[in-house]
Amino acid sequence: MVEKLVSGMEAKLYGDRGYISVELKNRLKDQGIDLITYHRKNMQSVKLSDSDEYYLKQRNKIETLFSLLKGQYNLVTSKARGITGFLSGVYASLYTYQLTHQNKPKIHIMNSLA
Fold it and tell me: In the chain, what are the domain boundaries?
């Protein structure tokens, strides 16, 4: 499914441990996608650039935000009957989060050193 989502793109893709696969990494490399993931203990470690390591760590903030939106702000993505209803639910959750949540996490864009 990942290959279909990123077809026609050239970018870096940051994934969690669920995407660790040499085969997947090679297939994405053929499409022009650089898959950046952590490595398992039994795998040979790969030295990441500072920017890649930074953005890989930022995934945690994004995952935490999605969890918060789904749990506390009622972001439910499966109940909509159409695209309008789906987007209304997403926008309502995001607006509520923006208005009520204090200490929002920030992700700073880091200039690439490569």
Answer: 1-46, 60-107
